[in-house]
Amino acid sequence: MTNNCLTLRKNLTFIIFSGKGGVGKTTCACATALHCAKRGQKTLLASTDPAHSLADSLDLPVGRAIGPVDGVDNLYAIEVDAPRSLEQFKQDYGNILKEIANRGTYFDRDDINDFFSLSLPGLDELMGIMTLMDLLESREYDVIVLDTAPTGHTIRLLSLPDHMREWLRVLDLMLEKRRYMASVFAGRYVPDYTDDFIKHMASKVSALKNLLTDHTRTQFIPVIIPEAMSLNETEKLVKTIKNQGIPLTQMIVNRVASDRKCAFCQGRRADQINTLREIDYKFKMLSRVHLPLLPHEVRGISVLTVFAERMVNPDYRGMLDAAATVQTSTVMPIQARLPGKELIEKKYVIIGGKGGVGKTSVAAATGLYLASQGKKTLIFSTDPAHSLSDSFGCSIGNQITSLSGSIQLYGLEIDAQRMLDEFKQQYVEEINEVFNGFLGESGVDVAFDREVMTEIISLIPPGLDEVMALIKLMELSDEKDYDVIILDTAPTGHLIRMLELPELAMKWLHTFFKLVLKYQNGDSLQKTADLMFEMIRGVRKVQSTLVDPDHTGFIGVTVPEAMIVEETEKLLESIQRLGVNSRCLVVNMVTPPNQCYFCNKVQAQQQSYMADLRARFTNYQMSEIPLFPHQVRGIDNLTELARLFG
Ligand SMILES: [Zn+2]
Q1: CA distances to 264, 584, 585 from 337, in Å
Q2: CA pair distance 54, 43, nearest whole angstrom
Q3: Cα(287) to centroid of ligand 1, in Å?
Q4: 578 partner at 20 to 30 Å CA-CA among 11, 35, 448, 623?
Q5: Pair 302, 354 in one domain
Q6: How many CB atoms lie within 10 A of CB 598?
Q7: What is the pLDDT of residues 285-343, one digit of tens each?
Q8: Amino acid 423: pLDDT
Q9: Contact criterion met (CB below 8 Å) for 385 and 236
Q10: Rounded to the nearest whole angstrom, what is the distance from the C-alpha of residue 98 to the centroid of ligand 1?
């Protein structure tokens, strides 16, 4: 059912927004929170996106601790500091974890803390969400509106409670041996604080699961825009949400273009019509709320308030366009040439940016350009929500696929999860072989050790799959002698995490390796040990390659919108801090001047952000890509884009 407004029951206490980056989920979350506060509910607006944008959207400061939002009664906001929540967790429970490990005797005391915190790199965010849950349970707020990270990240976050359960089960197993011994030799086992800890955490995880699946209290609202890539990603998201049993009844279809007498506006509308039909068909079980494409950003309390009114009031008849005034300014034109020569001698080119800025199109066009210059080129996607196939309009998947008959251009959407599963399976098979060798020997040690050693593989850190993908990339570059490999990466927050992961994976592998060596008497676990040794070597290579300026280059992709400008700055800072060479910034979707009222308003606003970009990134080579009156999809469109390189 297509609906013209969102229904927000007053008894809802937890409203969660998610969607592909750049679709306006933060705007919708902020507007919803304003609406709830305005109708008298004490409202907390929270963000768990590692690349927070609440402050940008409200155009007001938002802290890492809860604080009132200036000028709005009943409204409070927080950008959850996930790493700090994790620190708190370690402070509170670190000693208990050490004690549990000590009793299990599988690890040295020093290893254990690392091992467990490394096993749950999303633990920080989970702790952040649990803090919010505590606030709801204590009835501190009537409603919490949550702005989450882009799709791929959110899917992972929602699987964390299950991961945490697994983790607690292994801890519990570690204690089992001692409990058994105590009951055999002392006649009984008296539970102590270690048991309490496991019980306490397990009950918190259950409470979170209950909250997330409670139809009366919780609602998940995906935000989508009428573009093929957003549609495909949202399909995956909705499937995950449904599987998790999280209540989902409505979705926001944002930025629906209306009919105007202008080639750009008409082109945009024509582009949307098929996708809108597909959205209607694929999400027919959801109530779909259409919101209009606007010529300006929805930013700041007054514009957000009008937007909220439009979002929830079925009788709204006002003019959203009129809500914002646009500052006009003119800037020097930026050169149109895209970075070509700078890349030609590179071995790896990483393309990064916020979701929705056209990263994949830029990656695809870069590939076409380099291949047309005679370079054997592979485009390698590590985004768990792959969109390379969508971009080329063909099916690529988990195998190297030729993308052009005339030039040497190949694509690969790596199935990192499968690589990880194969590694796990290898390990479990070997563990079984080892313990089958002990058959006939008696003793509780063997039985308990077997179980713990088998289960411990489930503590593999989420994200190790992506590191394995990077290792695979290095291997491919050696084996298949590509001249250049282009990395199409996941959105910002995720990308930064992935680049930091080799460090984390390394620590984890070392700790795990020690454990495996303890059991590696004779030839047992030899294959696992070899595999891990190879992985450790691979991780070292990934680390040294990424920071080598002769081999690796980074292209940042952005669009001229205020919120994205802010995020681009954060991204480029992180990239430089990690030591990755980056000098090129591509500004995508720049509206060319034309006669249309709507387009002109868009253009005026964009020009002011272009000026901002130029002021901020003085040491970058900036180039711009004009907005096309159609989506850039398929080899013909991409080739047109590739002509801008040189
Ligand atoms: Zn127009």
Answers
A1: 23, 11, 12
A2: 14
A3: 29
A4: 623
A5: no
A6: 21
A7: 999 999 988 888 888 999 999 999 999 988 887 665 554 444 444 444 445 577 777 77
A8: 83
A9: yes
A10: 63
Examine residue 447 and state whether it is found in any structural domain, yes or no.
no
Q: Is residue 75 part of a domain?
A: yes
Contact call for residues 377 and 370 (beta carbons, < 8 A): yes
Model pLDDT, residue 386: 76
φ and ψ of 352, to 5 deg: -140, 155
**Cα-to-centroid distance, 266 and ligand 1 (Å):** 7
Residue 601 CA to ligand 1 centre (angstroms): 9
CA of 257 to the centre of ligand 1 (A): 10
Question: What is the model's pLDDT at position 281?
Answer: 95
Please enumerate in sequence order all residues whose Cβ is within 8 A of that of 336, keeping only pairs 6 or more positions apart, or say none. 623, 624, 626, 644
Q: How far, in Å, is the centroid of ligand 1 from the Cα of 354?
A: 25
Do residues 366 and 265 share a domain? no
CA 298 to ligand 1 center in whole angstroms: 19
402 and 255, same structural domain?
no
Q: Are residues 315 and 237 in the same domain?
A: yes
Q: In angstroms, what is the span from residue 609 Cα to ligand 1's centroid?
A: 19
Using alpha carbons, select from 91, 197, 49, 76 the residue that is nearest to residue 135. 76
Cα(295) to centroid(ligand 1), Å: 9
pLDDT attached to residue 333: 47
Distance 296 CA to ligand 1 centre (A): 13
DSSP 215-228: TTTEEEEEEE-SSH
CATH of the domain at 23: 3.40.50.300
Q: Are 148 and 157 in contact (CB under 8 A)?
A: yes
pLDDT digits (tens, 9 = 90+) for 268-291: 888 889 899 999 999 999 999 999
Q: Which helix (H) or strand (E) holds 627?
A: none
CA–centroid distance, 627 to ligand 1, in Å, is 12
Q: What's the CA gap between 204 and 193, in Å, rounded?
A: 16
- Cβ neighbours of residue 645 closer than 8 Å, sequence gap 6 or more: 337, 338, 339, 340, 365, 366, 369
Q: Are residues 39 and 151 in the same domain?
A: yes
Question: For the chain, which ranges sit under pLDDT 70?
Answer: 1, 104-122, 151-153, 318-336, 384, 437-448, 462-463, 491-503, 516, 518-524, 563
Sheet holding 43-47, edge to edge: 2-3, 287-292, 250-256, 218-224, 14-18, 143-147, 43-47, 75-79, 67-68
pLDDT at 319: 60
Q: Are residues 301 and 378 in the same domain?
A: no
**319 and 346 in one domain?**
no
Cα of 595 from ligand 1 centre, angstroms: 7
Q: How far is the CA of 262 from the centre of ligand 1 (A)?
A: 5
Q: Which residues of 87-122 are buried (b: 16+ CB within 10 A; e: fewer)?
A: eebeeebeebbbbbbebbebbeeebbbebbbbbbbb
Domain count of the fold of the chain: 2
Helical H runs in 255-358?
Answer: 263-282, 301-312, 341-344
Q: Is there a single domain that holds both residue 250 and residue 365? A: no
Query: Do the beta carbons of residue 149 and residue 355 sit within 8 Å?
Result: no
